[in-house]
Amino acid sequence: MMQSYMRTTGNKQCWESGSASTTGMMWKTLLVVSLFCWGKCQESQNMTPEEKGAIRDQIVEMFDHAYGSYMKYAYPADELMPLSCRGRVRGQEPNRGDIDDSLGKFSLTLIDTLDTLVVLNKLDEFEEAVKKAVSDVRLDNDVVVSVFETNIRVLGGLLGGHVMADLLRQRGERMQWYRDELLHMAKELGHRLLPAFNTTSGLPYPKVNLRYGVLNPLSRTGTESDTCTACAGTMILEFAALSRLSGNSVFEEHARKALDVLWERRQRGSDLVGTVINIHNGEWVRRDSGVGAGIDSYYEYLMKAYILLGDNVFLDRFNVHYSAIMKYISQPPLLLNVHMHNPTVSVRSWMDSLLAFFPGLQVLRGDLKPAIETHEMLYQVTKQHKFLPEAFTTEFRVHWGQHLLRPEFAESTYYLYKATGDPYYLRVGQSIVEKLNAYARVPCGFAAVQDVRTGTHEDRMDSFFLAEMFKYLYLMFSEKSHLPIDMDGYIFTTEAHLLPISLSTTQPPCPGNNTETVRISQEEDLFTHSCPSTETLFPNNPSFAKTIRDGYKYLTGVGRAFHPLPIREIELPLHDNGMEPVEFFKSMGISLTPLNEANMGDTGRLKEHKGVYRVKLVAELSQAPEEEVVVPHVVQLISPPFLGRTVLTAGPAKFGMDLTKQEHGVKGSIVKASPYTACGPIDNAAGLKGHIALALRGDCMFAAKARWLQKAGAIGAIFIDHREGSNSEETPLFQMVGDGDSTEDITLPLVFLFSREGAVLTAALEKHHNVDVLLLPKERQLGRDKMEKHVSMNLKLRLAEEGETEGGAASGRTLEFVLENDEVLLKDEGVEELREKQQSEQQQSCTEDSDRTQPSQIPDS
Ligand code: DMJ
């Protein structure tokens, strides 16, 4: 029902645009509209079973390529190096620091992939892989590993593998030889991780030596005093499963204790936790709080521990934290990082890609609206940069361009598809598949992307790519009938390993469970849709997710013709100093354009009472986003008496002529505009024509000034700051931005001077009347080359052969270093000649004595 509605609606829109076109103009419109519509229709169109099947096959082919490459080129190494087509063996490759702590010489990728093989119905390969793991893998290597990574990837991988092996064995079709070997390995590994919990607080050390533990003199670890919140708080699923499957409660007890400490240490005012904590005294080391790196799976595990173990205490804690997150951190579509003690203060202007799991968690929580909003934002970022960069700014620009083939975005897409049934999410999944194939696939697997801006590859394929990415993608395009197991009976760990929900009922709970319970009064039932149900939540409301998404479609600017900033309605109170709000904002360089009724739709009636405006808000100066460096420009005074020696540092503009593309800059004499702010028709247009205009900042947007000056015939414009005393030494350079609308009509070169530099220029104009300047990027200023060019010369030193220096065998001038009585004497034939000539001239004119030629006096040859 939902599907046919969507399809009909989409086709109707496309078709109607076409049928209306009878003139050339209309054909053009048709083309544009159709292209636009095609993209949109594609995204929301339902997917036929055949199409889904084709994508599923494609995913399996990609998995075969990745896993096959690992097995062929890398196994038994921990990871595949997909560019070198060989395995990464710790100690044999350059040390990458903490990243290498995932590598324990235990065939990490094989173990992390075990249950993926089952989900993808590769049961023969699974049986083979389990045999290999059982026969080849050792867990007692003298290697220091990360407790967190080893827990989620290896312990989780062994448990997921065991659960699957046990299931297949019970079905009686295969794995009949299996005697719980993977579970025994999991127990062994659990015991090897336990020494990490030997702290007074109960928070685990971040690292452990698999053979020697932590405090043993041979362990080479145990000096660390901090760990991340996620590192301490992401143990409970694996450790509880291990306890319940093995009958030994010790694992679950330790994981619970660590969670209790984190809960105790939450900031009571905000109910948030920090990112790094001291494992000995429980003090926070880093108090920034978000839902991404450092904290992410702590929240995830509270929720999932409740689902897996049915213990209310985890749900109660999760709900307290979740309310705090929604209050301070989630500002849909953004997820911010705030200070845990002062949570209204945002501590950074970028987000990391790990937080992309959060919409998935919100789906489990039953909170779909913010999940849809944040996911849509993430999708827009992937549209702009192909993949999610490791970090991106709140303006969706690249902050850190690496992409490690992380699965979090696919994970959230999977959850949203399962919850909404909206085919849009299948299209998102399809785009992930296509991009991986197009931009990450290499002959020996899939390679991480070093920088999404350049697309360069990195020689790594982390094990989570096989453990997580392929599971979520495959499940998205599969019906229940395609799967060898009923997914509704399992929960995904943070590494997407499968643990049976039945653990809570079929296995006895841990006897030593002393986790404190909290009673939280909730005004409403916060947990209406909390089960990890794969049933669609909104079967009768096909446009549920779409209406939420639509507001976030063009966040990053991709897919729209111009780049207008989003229009926000704000209410401006009168300022204390009596200044009208518009004036007050203008004085801060912010333009407020009252919007007319037509722009605003039905709700857009202008508020009539004083001090309330409905406005478009555009700041006219922008600090360049982190990855984009502001190219410093200069105004160089070149007419006499300055002759290029006076150079004023200037900020560029993001619109108008791009001076970096003008080989020689733009040259002209300067004339002050009248009015000086250039916010209206220019009175002195005749005098300004063909010259570079000087105009004062303020009263209107730079773009408006530029348009007036361009109309008056100026060939460039220098805007001078109106804030007294501002200067380029104390204030970081800014770049001017447009007014939120298209600025394509502005072709003038534009630069910005702080007031102190501006004063130099106006003083020069007053004194000399004619001042010629050059506008250009700083690195191309005149005379700079000369100043910075160093003359260099290569000298070759050798001992002269006997007699060689006497005959004058070499032609031309020769510079010789001759070793004589332990001293190096320098001789230059040309200089000798010159000196002789001078000497004879001097002798002739009977003036001064000759002098011995010093090396420093040798002229450049
Ligand atoms: C995985 O190892 C896990 O999902 C973990 O919780 C954090 N992220 C990586 C993959 O990005």
TrEMBL record:
<dbReference type="GO" id="GO:0004571">
    <property type="term" value="F:mannosyl-oligosaccharide 1,2-alpha-mannosidase activity"/>
</dbReference>
<keyword id="KW-0732">Signal</keyword>
<keyword id="KW-0325">Glycoprotein</keyword>
<dbReference type="GO" id="GO:1904380">
    <property type="term" value="P:endoplasmic reticulum mannose trimming"/>
</dbReference>
<feature type="active site" description="Proton donor">
    <location>
        <position position="390"/>
    </location>
</feature>
<dbReference type="InterPro" id="IPR001382">
    <property type="entry name" value="Glyco_hydro_47"/>
</dbReference>
<comment type="pathway">
    <text>Protein modification; protein glycosylation.</text>
</comment>
<dbReference type="GO" id="GO:0016020">
    <property type="term" value="C:membrane"/>
</dbReference>
<feature type="active site" description="Proton donor">
    <location>
        <position position="149"/>
    </location>
</feature>
<keyword id="KW-0106">Calcium</keyword>
<feature type="domain" description="PA">
    <location>
        <begin position="666"/>
        <end position="759"/>
    </location>
</feature>
<dbReference type="InterPro" id="IPR012341">
    <property type="entry name" value="6hp_glycosidase-like_sf"/>
</dbReference>
<protein>
    <recommendedName>
        <fullName>alpha-1,2-Mannosidase</fullName>
        <ecNumber>3.2.1.-</ecNumber>
    </recommendedName>
</protein>
<keyword id="KW-0479">Metal-binding</keyword>
<dbReference type="Pfam" id="PF01532">
    <property type="entry name" value="Glyco_hydro_47"/>
</dbReference>
<dbReference type="Pfam" id="PF02225">
    <property type="entry name" value="PA"/>
</dbReference>
<keyword id="KW-0378">Hydrolase</keyword>
<feature type="active site">
    <location>
        <position position="408"/>
    </location>
</feature>
<feature type="compositionally biased region" description="Polar residues">
    <location>
        <begin position="840"/>
        <end position="861"/>
    </location>
</feature>
<keyword id="KW-0834">Unfolded protein response</keyword>
<keyword id="KW-0256">Endoplasmic reticulum</keyword>
<feature type="compositionally biased region" description="Basic and acidic residues">
    <location>
        <begin position="829"/>
        <end position="839"/>
    </location>
</feature>
<feature type="region of interest" description="Disordered">
    <location>
        <begin position="829"/>
        <end position="861"/>
    </location>
</feature>
<dbReference type="GO" id="GO:0044322">
    <property type="term" value="C:endoplasmic reticulum quality control compartment"/>
</dbReference>
<dbReference type="GO" id="GO:0005975">
    <property type="term" value="P:carbohydrate metabolic process"/>
</dbReference>
<dbReference type="GO" id="GO:0005509">
    <property type="term" value="F:calcium ion binding"/>
</dbReference>
<dbReference type="InterPro" id="IPR046450">
    <property type="entry name" value="PA_dom_sf"/>
</dbReference>
<dbReference type="InterPro" id="IPR003137">
    <property type="entry name" value="PA_domain"/>
</dbReference>
<dbReference type="GO" id="GO:0006986">
    <property type="term" value="P:response to unfolded protein"/>
</dbReference>
<dbReference type="InterPro" id="IPR036026">
    <property type="entry name" value="Seven-hairpin_glycosidases"/>
</dbReference>
<comment type="similarity">
    <text>Belongs to the glycosyl hydrolase 47 family.</text>
</comment>
<dbReference type="InterPro" id="IPR044674">
    <property type="entry name" value="EDEM1/2/3"/>
</dbReference>
<keyword id="KW-0326">Glycosidase</keyword>
<feature type="active site">
    <location>
        <position position="296"/>
    </location>
</feature>
<feature type="binding site">
    <location>
        <position position="494"/>
    </location>
    <ligand>
        <name>Ca(2+)</name>
    </ligand>
</feature>
